[in-house]
Specification:
Elements (H helix, E strand, L loop, with lengths): L4 H15 L1 H11 L6 E9 L6 H9 L3 E9 L4 E8 L6 E7 L6 H12 L22 H10 L1 H9 L5 E5 L9 H10 L12 E3 L4 E5 L4 E6 L2 E6 L2 E7 L13 H7 L7
Parallel strand pairs: 1-4, 5-10
Antiparallel strand pairs: 1-5, 2-3, 3-4, 6-7, 7-10, 8-9
Helix pairs in contact: 1-2, 5-6
The protein binds nickel (II) ion.
């Protein structure tokens, strides 16, 4: 039993709003009651077979998505792919996975223990992508994970959910470019991720991106609650390729810095 594509994104959106209160305000601020077209959403995981990128991707393939691009983030030890739907108004999907075997033995042991708690049927369930962490992680494990990899800590704590939604500026009424969008966000009091500059990318690479810093939200770990970085909102302006069609890929150097929107410090 699969989701239909709209149902899947509605579930992801409602789950995202629960830990990202600023997203509701930003959505209202830019949307002004109109529909906002999303450029993409992103989901994170570990590359262990039970929950890897391919397992997550299948949920999107089942509702009409196709694999389009592959990316490597050497220093963060991540592999990612992006997927597109035949309807260009459906968001692209960017899924990344941590290459656990490249991490310390301690990180490998913790992540392996978490994934071993997950019954093999769970990642195949219809609601898996918007049901949070399918394992119990304690505070000590979480601290060890973020000490080595903010990505690993975030993924262990928050599990399966949209890490961000992304406004497609080209399809946003009232705004022509990312510079204007960023100024409006800052005037309204939001903090932008400035790692590598507020605008990642350029017209030359056919994609400019910016993002807010993640909200802080209360996450229930197995031995108590922690207030940690949750999710953020991203903004993307795309340019046309020489053939006149809009570029639909991603730029690894830019995405590398966008990942840091969920850093806790
Ligand atoms: Ni993104």
């Amino acid at each position: 039993m699969h989701n239909n594509v709209n149902e899947l994104f509605e579930n992801l959106w409602q789950q995202y709003l629960k830990v990202t209160p600023s997203a509701k305000n930003i959505h209202q601020f830019f949307g002004n009651g109109e529909t906002i077209i999303n450029d993409h959403i992103a989901i994170r995981t570990f590359n262990l077979p039970k929950v890897n990128l391919a397992v997550l991707a299948q949920h999107f393939i089942d509702v009409g998505y196709e694999e389009k691009g592959q990316y490597n983030f050497e220093s963060k030890k991540l592999t990612a792919k992006h997927f597109e739907h035949s309807d260009p108004n459906q968001p692209k999907v960017f899924i990344s996975e941590l290459r656990v075997e490249e991490c310390s033995q301690q990180l490998q042991d913790i992540v392996t223990e978490l994934v071993e708690q997950v019954d093999a049927s769970i990642p195949l369930a219809k609601n898996f992508l918007y049901n949070g962490a399918p394992w119990q992680v304690n505070k000590a494990q979480y601290e060890l994970l973020i000490g080595e990899s903010e990505y690993a800590g975030w993924t262990a704590a928050w599990g399966y959910r949209a890490n961000h939604f992304t406004v497609h500026i080209n399809k946003l009424a009232g705004y022509n470019d990312i510079e204007t969008v960023n100024e409006a966000l800052k005037s309204a009091g939001y903090t932008l991720n400035s790692a590598g500059g507020e605008i990642k990318g350029s017209q030359e690479v056919l994609l400019k991106q910016s993002s807010t810093m993640a909200d802080k939200a209360t996450c229930s770990l197995s031995d108590g609650d922690v207030d940690i970085a949750s999710c953020f909102y991203e903004f993307a302006q795309r340019y046309n390729m020489p053939n006149g069609e809009e570029y639909t890929g991603f730029v690894a150097a830019s995405a590398d810095k966008i990942f840091e929107s969920t850093n806790n410090s």
